[in-house]
C-alpha cells in the first residue's frame, strides 16, 4: 500500500531560505555534538527545525508517545497531556498511548487535542510493587508494539509520566533509535554511572565499558527498533528473575546494557529530560521535558 502511495504521490518541491552551514564554524563550542560512532547529540542551536519539519512532513511521519499511568500515577496525566499538546511534535501526526489499569478514570478526562492528534487508552495489568511496574513496562511496550503500534506509527517514544513539557520536543529528536543522556550523569566518569555491577545479572556492565548513562524516562525509535530493544530488555529481566536478582535501577539498567551493544543513532541532551532540583547550568539553553516533583512515599505502591 505504501509503495502504491509512493508511485502516485507528486513530488513536492519547496524553496526554503536559510543561512548556509559553515564548515569551520561549529554552532556550539561548549558541548559535544557527536558521539564517536557519529550519532548526533541534540542540543539547542545545533539544528534548523524548519528543514527538519519539512523533511518529516514530506514523509508524512506518524509519531506515537506511550506512557504509563498505573495506580496513583494517573494524577500526572492531565498536566502531561496538556503540556504535550503545547510542545510535543506540534504540527505532526501524533498518537498518545496511555497504558493504565484505571481505564474508566482516564476516560473521564476530556482532552481537547490538536488536528491530527489522537489519544488511546490501553489496558495494562497492575503490579503490587512499584519496581515491578517499572520492570514490566518493557514487556508491555514490546507486546503493544508487536500487536498494534507497528501498524499505527512510524516512531514511538516512551516517557515517564511524572514529567511535563516546558519547551519544544520536535522531530529533531527522532531517529532509528534514540536515548537521552541522564541529567544526573552527563559529566560523570564511567565509574560513577549507576550501571548494574553484579556479573550474575544480565544487565551487568563492567567498570571499563559504557559511553553514557541513559535515562529510561525518555527513549524511542522506529517501532521495529523499539520492538528489538524492549524484547531484549524484557528477556534480560526475566532471566534475572529466574536467578532471583533485580538490577539496581530496574529496567533502566537493562536499557543501559542494550545501548552499549546496540548504540543509539541519535542522543538527546539533558535538555530533553531535566530535573529543576539540579539548577540550570550555563550550557542548558532549554529545558524541554522536566520532572514534576513528587513525594515517593505518597505515590508509590498506592
Ligand atoms: C527512574 C527512571 C524511570 C525508571 C525508574 C526505575 C528517569 C527520569 N526515570 O524514575 O524511567 O527507570 O527510575 O526505577 O530516568 N509508574 C506508574 N505507577 C507506579 C509506578 C510507576 O505508572 O505505581 C510508571 C510511571 O509512568 C512513572 C514510571 O513508571 O513515570 C517510572 O516510575 P517512577 O517515576 O516512580 O520512577 P523514578 O522517578 O525513580
TrEMBL record:
<protein>
    <submittedName>
        <fullName>Histo-blood group ABO system transferase-like</fullName>
    </submittedName>
</protein>
<keyword id="KW-0472">Membrane</keyword>
<dbReference type="GO" id="GO:0046872">
    <property type="term" value="F:metal ion binding"/>
</dbReference>
<keyword id="KW-0812">Transmembrane</keyword>
<feature type="active site" description="Nucleophile">
    <location>
        <position position="252"/>
    </location>
</feature>
<feature type="binding site">
    <location>
        <begin position="68"/>
        <end position="70"/>
    </location>
    <ligand>
        <name>UDP-N-acetyl-alpha-D-galactosamine</name>
    </ligand>
</feature>
<feature type="binding site">
    <location>
        <position position="160"/>
    </location>
    <ligand>
        <name>Mn(2+)</name>
    </ligand>
</feature>
<feature type="binding site">
    <location>
        <position position="162"/>
    </location>
    <ligand>
        <name>Mn(2+)</name>
    </ligand>
</feature>
<feature type="binding site">
    <location>
        <begin position="160"/>
        <end position="162"/>
    </location>
    <ligand>
        <name>UDP-N-acetyl-alpha-D-galactosamine</name>
    </ligand>
</feature>
<feature type="binding site">
    <location>
        <position position="194"/>
    </location>
    <ligand>
        <name>an alpha-L-fucosyl-(1-&gt;2)-beta-D-galactosyl derivative</name>
    </ligand>
</feature>
<feature type="binding site">
    <location>
        <position position="73"/>
    </location>
    <ligand>
        <name>UDP-N-acetyl-alpha-D-galactosamine</name>
    </ligand>
</feature>
<keyword id="KW-0479">Metal-binding</keyword>
<feature type="binding site">
    <location>
        <position position="275"/>
    </location>
    <ligand>
        <name>an alpha-L-fucosyl-(1-&gt;2)-beta-D-galactosyl derivative</name>
    </ligand>
</feature>
<feature type="binding site">
    <location>
        <position position="182"/>
    </location>
    <ligand>
        <name>an alpha-L-fucosyl-(1-&gt;2)-beta-D-galactosyl derivative</name>
    </ligand>
</feature>
<keyword id="KW-1133">Transmembrane helix</keyword>
<keyword id="KW-0735">Signal-anchor</keyword>
<dbReference type="GO" id="GO:0016020">
    <property type="term" value="C:membrane"/>
</dbReference>
<comment type="similarity">
    <text>Belongs to the glycosyltransferase 6 family.</text>
</comment>
<dbReference type="GO" id="GO:0005975">
    <property type="term" value="P:carbohydrate metabolic process"/>
</dbReference>
<dbReference type="GO" id="GO:0005794">
    <property type="term" value="C:Golgi apparatus"/>
</dbReference>
<keyword id="KW-0328">Glycosyltransferase</keyword>
<keyword id="KW-0464">Manganese</keyword>
<keyword id="KW-0808">Transferase</keyword>
<feature type="binding site">
    <location>
        <position position="252"/>
    </location>
    <ligand>
        <name>an alpha-L-fucosyl-(1-&gt;2)-beta-D-galactosyl derivative</name>
    </ligand>
</feature>
<dbReference type="GO" id="GO:0031982">
    <property type="term" value="C:vesicle"/>
</dbReference>
<dbReference type="GO" id="GO:0016758">
    <property type="term" value="F:hexosyltransferase activity"/>
</dbReference>
